[in-house]
Amino acid sequence: MKKVLIGGIGNVLLGDDGVGPYVVRLLAASYEFDEGVELCDLGTPALDLIDQISGKDAVILIDALKVDAEPGAVLLYRKPDIVQHSPAVRMDPHSPALVETLLSVDMFGIAPADVLLVGISSGTYDSGCSLSPSVRDSVDRVIAEVLSELDRVGVGYRRREQPVESGIWWTRVERPFPTLPI
Amino acid sequence: MSKRITIDPITRIEGHLRIDVEVDNNSVSNAWASCTMWRGIEKILRGRDPRDAWLYTQRFCGVCTTVHAMASVRAVEDALKLEVPLNAQYIRNLILIAHALHDHIVHFYQLSALDWVDILQIPKADPDRTAKLAESLSPWTRNSRQEFKAAQDKVKAVAASGQLGIFMNGYWGHPAMRLSPDVNLLAFTHYLQALEYQRKALQVVGMLGSKTPHIQNLTVGGVANAIDLDSQGALGMDRLEAIRLLLAEVVQFIQQVYFVDVCAVAAMYPDWFKIGKGVTNYLAVPDLPLDSKGESYDLPGGYIMNGNVGGAHFFRTSADKEFRESVSEDVTHAYYEGKKPLHPWVGETEPQFTGWTADGKYSWVKSPRFNNEPMQVGPLAQILIGYAQGHPLTRKYAELALGKVSAVAGIHATPDMLHSTLGRHAARAIRAAMLAELADKHWQLLVNNIAKGDTAVFNPPVFNGEVEGVGTHEAPRGTLSHWVVVKDAKIKNYQAVVPSTWNASPRDQAGNHGPYEASLLHTPLARPEEPLEVIRTVHSFDPCMACACHAFDPSGKQIAKAKVL
User: Fold this and answer.
1) Is A47 part of any domain?
2) Residues 6+ apart with CB under 8 A from B341
3) Largest CB tally within 10 Å, which of A159, B357, B382, B438?
């Protein structure tokens, strides 16, 4: 049994930053997964991320990105893409710590074999609970990327007959059931 | 559909703390603490159901989710004068204790220890000598030669690879680093072990709160943990016993490792008991309630003005009348509209961004004030106020810490020395040792109360007319208060005055520096282009925001920029 974490990162009170938690909860509502797959709305973890990913065989993280790309663009990063950015002098426990986390689990010898970051180029980070239209429209594409990564690492999933309650309490869900994939 | 590109940097947004210091003759002559991000999350809460507020507020912060949930339910309960059943108080207390122990361990080891510990000295250490030294300091069973050797090998491997990885950006070899190779190895080995024990503390939060991050078990009026000693599905003896065992391991790590390491490292940097004093007004609120009305507490609160510890004032309850009436927020130097300081119940959060100006507005953080004075909050405030009150548990561990520092350093350490950068670290270790002892007590209180046949966990809230309340929690970083006005069962106004706002506040209308700013003045810098000393003092507060540090010479030319993120 492969242990896989599908984690949504982001603050659901800051507009498009909430896309990670949104996607993870939607996935959990629409699909069933093999035993060993854990779906988690991680919020905005810093070094706590080490605890979340340790002991996993594969980790798929979904997060909003501040990048020079059209809002709603979906970009994929593997571990070497991420850790090539030097970690900063840490001033506080709260900074986003993806680079530090991946380097730390290496040092501790508990690194997952596969790491994929599915990033969504985001438009607005103003306080507010809803996603902007272009980011909301990217959700099905994000889900497709997550499922194709599960295919790649050899983990099964099944679309539910009927979606269950999504647990997305902070905003209205316009399309509770993804249209993709078959 | 998707394309793969590489970009720099990969970041999400967060609040960013920026520190500007002016350096004159290798000494800090002026300082500004500013937050560079506006969030304004409080406005989202207006018009919502007060019973749901805690779900939103625990998203204020990615790491301290629990504390904002707790302060929020307490605020609404205070507004409704709603009692909280004993079981709920004890369960909440255990969650708060476990969260704080996790937080303090992470702060010391993962965040700030490497300000004092030089990783690149570790290959020169002798694991045998280190084991002997460790044995003389503590009965910790994992202080073996094998543990030290394994940790040293990890550093050697990293150093040999030429890829420093996680240690890439430290100020290694800085002249302000003064530990021997053996002590560096000792502390680093515990840095590795700390990761396991902070996780056990977090597991307790998850077991009682049903998940972490973002606990799910709170409700206005109590908790949602069903109690049934014989049921596996509810909170029963099986789960309580598992919690007790986890806490026991964490408590042992706190008392035999963290507390000892802080005293030992402090003893080797005695001059840092003279640096970083700053604002000596201190504020803390009572916490860990022992009854359903919130009339008695295990941890004391009060305030101290101008370092006059003997003249401390004490709060009877966590929502003491003087506390309720004396808090205001000044926006003279913050990017908000408004002229005069406002009480949080009538507080406003209307942005007015002007750009950073040294003598004008320069921060998104407001300036909270108590009777118009800046206050330092956090473990140091908690310990000094408890010490002043003669609080037995505070005295016990404060004296133990000062005794250990005195013995190792060969000096006479006094409570007066705690007004300093190292004092804040020592106070945090003292607080952690106190909380460790209280973890056991509150577990026992909960079990005893359940054994009496009491399984109540919730009193239903009833809303009527317009009411206001304040919910406080003496969080790991200090006094947290949520202020709510409820009208016709909807939130009319909501303000959170958080510990890092007190400590990171900019100047106020009277020109008083905030605590971070004041603590940096006169700090000596060995190498202004590597302002390790500034980072040490800022870290000693356990700042709650991402931080960038800039050093300028008096002409305004930037001489160092320790960019973070």
Assistant:
1) yes
2) B328, B329, B330, B331, B369, B372, B508, B509
3) B382
Name which of B194, B171, B157 is nearest A106 in CA terms.
Answer: B157
- Inside any domain, residue A170: no
Written as one string, the DSSP assignment of B246-290 is HHHHHHHHIIIIIHHHHHHHHHT-GGGGSS------EEE--EEE-
H or E stretch at A7: strand A4-9
Q: Say how far apart CA B334 and CA B52 lie, in whole Å.
A: 30
Give the number of other CB atoms < 10 A from CB of residue A110.
14
Give pLDDT tens digits for B2-48: 322 222 223 344 446 778 888 888 899 998 888 766 667 788 899 99
Residues in chain B, overall count: 565
Minimal C-alpha gap between A161 and chain B (Å): 27
φ, ψ (nearest 5 deg) of residue B165? 55, -120
Domain holding B509, by residue range, is: 16-114+196-345+363-562
Q: Could you tell me if B21 and B520 are in contact, meaning their C-beta atoms sit under 8 angstroms apart?
A: yes
Q: Which residues from B are below 8 Å from A72, CB to CB?
A: none
Q: What is the distance between the alpha carbons of residues B397 and B404, in angstroms, rounded to a whole number?
A: 10
Encode B57-86: b = buried (16+ Cβ within 10 Å), e = exposed. bbbbbbbbbbbbbbbbbbbbbbbbebbbbb
For residue B277, the domain's CATH number is 1.10.645.10
Residue with tokens 């902007």: A132
DSSP structural state of residue B468: E
Q: Are B491 and B53 in contact (CB under 8 A)?
A: yes
Closest residue to B44, CB basis, from A89, A91, A128: A128
Q: Give the gap in angstroms from C-alpha B58 to the nearest C-alpha of chain A.
A: 10
Residue of B4, B6, B12 to mutate, testing the A interface (most A Cβ within 10 Å of its Cβ): B12
- The predicted pLDDT at position B561 comes to 52
In whole angstroms, what is the distance from residue B86 CA to residue B37 CA? 40
Q: Is residue A77 part of a domain?
A: yes
Number of domains in chain A: 1
Ranges of chain A with pLDDT below 70: 85-96, 174-182
CA distance B446 to A35: 35
* pLDDT per residue as tens digits for the range B478-533: 999 999 999 999 999 999 999 989 999 999 999 999 999 999 999 999 988 788 89
pLDDT at B255 over 80: yes
Q: At what angle do helices B86-105 and B65-80 cross, to 10 degrees?
A: 150
Looking at CA atoms only, how far is residue A20 from chain B in angstroms? Answer: 11
CATH of the domain at A18: 3.40.50.1450
Supply the range of the domain harboring residue A31: 4-159
Domain membership of residue B186 (yes or no) is no
pLDDT tens digits for A41-56? 998 887 788 889 989 9
| Interface TM-score (ipTM) > 0.90 | no
In a domain, B202, yes or no: yes
B559 touches B444 (CB < 8 A): no
Q: Is residue B185 part of a domain?
A: no
pLDDT at position B549, please? 35
Do the bridges between strand B327-330 and strand B367-370 make them parallel or antiparallel, or are there none, so unpaired?
Answer: antiparallel
A177 belongs to a structural domain = no
CA atoms within 13 A on the CB side of B54: 24
* Nearest-Cα residue of chain A relative to residue B564: A88
**Does position B314 have pLDDT exceeding 70, yes or no?**
yes
Is B75 domain-assigned?
yes
Q: What is the pTM of this model?
A: 0.93
Nearest Cα to B476, choosing from B13, B111, B224? B111
pLDDT of residue B550: 39
Q: What is the pLDDT of residue B269?
A: 97
Q: What phi, psi does B71 have (nearest 5°)?
A: -60, -35
- Number of structural domains (chain B) is 1
